[in-house]
């Protein structure tokens, strides 16, 4: 339940705090005083679209805060904590700033959050119904959504399963169309892959072969130079002609130090190290000699290596930077070719999946239609009963759930499903068209709402519908913004009585211009407008009994001090007293 609403710098409201409670709260005031700013503030608090033009002239930003009692809202508490906010003393503060220039900001339980997160947290708290909803509910899609909401959890579960399966069907049919439509491109791609794989197979490269052959080609091309260098190195290490070499020099150095090792152990260690070096030089000289012997000029092998490298280079120019890359491309290409060559198999698999999904959707659509038919019957009876309470005792609302299709075994054209032997036009919400019909009087034909109802009748039908839907919902607070427009006289009294009845189980906030409705309120708040000649300011003030009588007389006669209007106002209050919840008044500061 909303306990408090604080508004600052929004429209004509400079700063006001509205303290709320259970039961029915009505907000009244002169035209242009800013009554709808309260509804606008609630919309912002629920994550609605922000309009910088709503910021009060001269202010940098508008701010709306709402204090929510969370003691009985476990899901709400969890959503607040998931958003990073805190619940303190079973209360949560929701806030929204709208800048005159720039973006708006939002807070949940003290944590700054995106506006979308605020909307997700606050959405289960309040249902707002206004005059714009009347036009919305004249549309078939909105009527179907209202019926589904009234249908309860079972219908919602079926609708959700159907929508998920419909999305799968859309993806499957799109993929099937792509595969069929791109058959020529797939065949062209397959031919290109076969040619490329044939080239790679003909060369039959080994991993790393290009690097190995490059090294071998360089070695063969410089064989004479390498052999000369190797023989020179061997002579320097171990000369066969008696010339000074490394082995002889190392041996002489060792013998010199060996002769004095008895005089100093350090000299002996150096002699030992020279002995090790001599052994290493012998081995190294042998290796260099073997390397020199292995270097032979082989023009035939050089030509073969060059030719093989040319074949490998032809592959790397087309299919990869290295032979390893070429082999990886060939592996992936072989897999892709198998996929492309199986186009017929893919088409058959997709068609089978499509047919299976269509069959399952047909069964779900039949179940969904049956659930909607039952919900339509119950909702029609509920709204008709409400209309009886709203001074339309002979009016009847029926809800038609129909389908459009052709007899089987016609071939489906477009998005159609086979349901109970008929191909029916289908969509993401099923195969049903939902339309609300009104017979305003006994014996009258039931006609669509936008054709069969006057302005006043339409207002009462919409209020009856909203009340019927509200009682099936789980939101704790309902806001009605002048949904009683076009209603007057006895019907207006019945509207007030019905709202008072709803307020016994829910928190109800009503913006109204009807004194007959305001008389049933448990608390009455008036929007006062004042002006200093250049700036207009509005504030919210809670009325006591005497002030309330004066406000009702103003609403009745346009003046506050008319004796007859005051008498009529007292009469309204006395008549409505038994219907009110008799809740204590809570002051409103403004």
TrEMBL record:
<dbReference type="Pfam" id="PF02463">
    <property type="entry name" value="SMC_N"/>
</dbReference>
<keyword id="KW-0067">ATP-binding</keyword>
<comment type="similarity">
    <text>Belongs to the RecN family.</text>
</comment>
<protein>
    <recommendedName>
        <fullName>DNA repair protein RecN</fullName>
    </recommendedName>
</protein>
<keyword id="KW-0547">Nucleotide-binding</keyword>
<dbReference type="InterPro" id="IPR004604">
    <property type="entry name" value="DNA_recomb/repair_RecN"/>
</dbReference>
<keyword id="KW-0175">Coiled coil</keyword>
<feature type="coiled-coil region">
    <location>
        <begin position="340"/>
        <end position="374"/>
    </location>
</feature>
<feature type="domain" description="RecF/RecN/SMC N-terminal">
    <location>
        <begin position="2"/>
        <end position="533"/>
    </location>
</feature>
<dbReference type="InterPro" id="IPR003395">
    <property type="entry name" value="RecF/RecN/SMC_N"/>
</dbReference>
<keyword id="KW-0234">DNA repair</keyword>
<dbReference type="InterPro" id="IPR027417">
    <property type="entry name" value="P-loop_NTPase"/>
</dbReference>
<comment type="function">
    <text>May be involved in recombinational repair of damaged DNA.</text>
</comment>
<keyword id="KW-0227">DNA damage</keyword>
């Amino acid at each position: 339940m909303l306990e408090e609403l604080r508004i600052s710098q929004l429209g004509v409201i400079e700063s006001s705090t509205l303290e709320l409670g259970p039961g029915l709260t009505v907000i009244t005031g002169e035209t242009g005083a800013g009554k709808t700013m309260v509804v606008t503030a609630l919309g912002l608090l629920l994550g609605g679209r922000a309009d910088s033009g709503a910021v009060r002239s001269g202010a940098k930003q508008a701010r709306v805060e709402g204090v929510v009692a969370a003691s009985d809202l476990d899901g709400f508490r969890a959503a607040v904590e998931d958003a990073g906010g805190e619940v303190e003393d079973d209360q949560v503060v929701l806030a929204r700033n709208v800048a005159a220039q720039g973006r708006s900001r939002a807070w949940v339980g003290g944590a700054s959050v995106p506006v979308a997160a605020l909307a997700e947290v606050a959405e289960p708290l309040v249902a707002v119904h206004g005059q714009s909803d009347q036009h919305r509910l004249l549309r078939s899609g909105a009527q179907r959504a209202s019926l589904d909401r009234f249908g309860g959890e079972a219908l919602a579960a079926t609708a959700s399963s159907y929508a998920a399966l419909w999305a799968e069907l859309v993806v499957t049919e799109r993929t099937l169309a792509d595969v069929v439509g791109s058959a020529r491109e797939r065949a062209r791609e397959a031919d290109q892959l076969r040619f490329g794989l044939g080239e790679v197979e003909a060369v039959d490269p080994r991993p790393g072969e290009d690097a190995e052959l490059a090294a071998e080609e360089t070695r063969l091309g410089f064989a004479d130079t390498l052999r000369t260098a190797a023989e020179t190195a061997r002579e320097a290490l171990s000369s066969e002609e008696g010339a000074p070499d490394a082995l002889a020099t190392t041996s002489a150095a060792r013998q010199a130090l060996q002769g004095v090792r008895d005089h100093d152990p350090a000299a002996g260690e150096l002699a030992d190290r020279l002995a090790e070096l001599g052994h290493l030089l012998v081995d190294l000289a042998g290796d260099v000699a073997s390397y020199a012997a292995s270097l032979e000029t082989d023009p035939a092998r050089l030509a073969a290596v060059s030719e093989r490298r040319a074949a490998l280079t032809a592959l790397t120019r087309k299919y990869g930077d290295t032979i390893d890359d070429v082999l990886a491309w060939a592996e992936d290409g072989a897999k892709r070719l198998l996929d492309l060559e199986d186009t017929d198999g893919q088409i058959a698999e997709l068609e089978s999946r499509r047919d299976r999904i269509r069959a399952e959707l047909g069964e779900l659509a039949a179940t969904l239609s049956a659930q909607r038919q039952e919900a339509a019957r119950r909702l029609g009876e509920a709204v008709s009963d409400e209309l009886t309470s709203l001074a339309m005792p002979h009016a009847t609302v029926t809800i038609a759930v129909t389908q459009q299709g052709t007899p089987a075994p016609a071939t489906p054209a477009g998005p159609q499903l086979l349901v109970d032997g008929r191909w029916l036009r289908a969509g993401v919400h099923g195969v049903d068209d939902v339309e609300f019909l009104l017979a305003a009087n006994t014996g009258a034909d039931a006609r669509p709402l936008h054709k069969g109802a006057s302005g006043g009748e339409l207002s009462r039908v919409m209020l009856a519908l909203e009340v019927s839907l509200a009682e099936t919902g789980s939101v704790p607070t309902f806001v009605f913004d002048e949904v009683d427009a076009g209603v007057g006289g006895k019907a207006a009294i019945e509207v007030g009585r019905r709202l008072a009845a709803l307020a016994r189980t829910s928190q109800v906030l009503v913006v109204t211009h009807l004194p007959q409705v305001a008389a049933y309120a448990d608390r009455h708040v008036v929007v006062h407008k004042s002006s200093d000649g250049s700036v207009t300011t509005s504030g919210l003030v809670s009325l006591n009994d005497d002030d309330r009588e004066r406000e009702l007389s103003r609403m009745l006669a346009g003046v506050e001090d008319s004796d007859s209007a005051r008498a009529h106002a007292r009469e309204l209050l006395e008549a409505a007293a038994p219907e009110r919840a008799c809740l204590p008044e809570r002051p409103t500061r403004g």
